[in-house]
Design brief:
Elements lengths: L8 H24 L3 E4 L1 H11 L2 E5 L3 E13 L4 E12 L5 E15 L4 E15 L7 H15 L3 E4 L2 H9 L2 E9 L2 E8 L1
Antiparallel strand pairs: 1-9, 2-3, 3-4, 4-5, 5-6, 6-7, 8-9
Amino acid sequence: MPVFSFLPQARRSALAVLAGMALVLAGCAQLAGPRSVVFSEGELQQMLERKFPLDRRMLEVMEVKVSQPQLRLLPERNRLTLDLQADATDRLFANALHGRLALESGLRLDPRDASIRLTQVRVTAFTLDKDGASPRVPLQRLGALVAETLLEDAAIHQLKPEQMERLTRAGYQPGSIEITPAGIVISVVPR
């Protein structure tokens, strides 16, 4: 015996229509999905660890390696800080320098390859030691400039092609990035 058999036919039809509408609305809500993607501070730390160490040759005379990133979010300024191990070797005299690099950066989304990149990188502290002695101040300033150049626009994560395909099929694209206490929030906007 059907559940609604005791109701008159008109009421059964009305209930069936209402139930169908509820299912359609629930389906639409599922298609709309969330309007943002959130990566926690821990997820960001893991992303960074996969992208480091970075090795670069600067001006054909210096090999620079930055590694061991330690992340901290600065949501009140929509920025983050990174603390990194810095190693440099000049290729002319084989002098090795080791130290720590602290920097502050914003984040941006590059629509060409759906990557999250560092932007407006500013070195806040840079210490180098050469055989236990600190090098002269001009060398440290040059090192800070090299570090900013090396890390500006560095990709820390790339959205997966299947994520981008789902967004595109639904008529959306990634928008802006905001750094919050919960992590980074990438807004999703209509195409």
